[in-house]
Amino acid sequence: MTKFRIGVTADFKTGIPGRLDPVLQTLFDPRPDLEYRYFAGTAHDERGAYIAAADIAGFDAVLSFGIRYKADSFSQAERLTVISRWGVGYDMIDVPACTAANVLLAITIDAVRRPVRTSRSLSKSRIESA
Predict the structure, then answer these.
(1) For burial by CB atoms within 10 Å, which of 44, 57, 122, 123 has the most?
(2) In the CATH scheme, what architecture does the domain 4-129 have?
(3) From the CA atom positions of the chain, what is the Rg in Å?
């Protein structure tokens, strides 16, 4: 049986340390048909790290936190069916390239429970009233 392979971007470990591991252990570890592993983006440009094509080759799905995906990130994505972006928006992912590679792009439901502008306004008002 071929296992469904899930890649998890390593920036989860620095962005939300310790929060994802218990979820993966609870949901994925009991499943003999799944395997997952953390991986880092190995490509770099003037803006920093991003996902190289070889980084995601061989995965069926990717859970991604905040690292970038450029057009060439998808050149070896024969197995990849979905990227689930944890956070707000798709600004870190080249959406046309993702679409051209027939990769579904999703964001996490309830990742942010109120609009960012509202959150900033509330924070600002709390600081000013203190």
Answers:
(1) 57
(2) 3-Layer(aba) Sandwich (3.40)
(3) 17
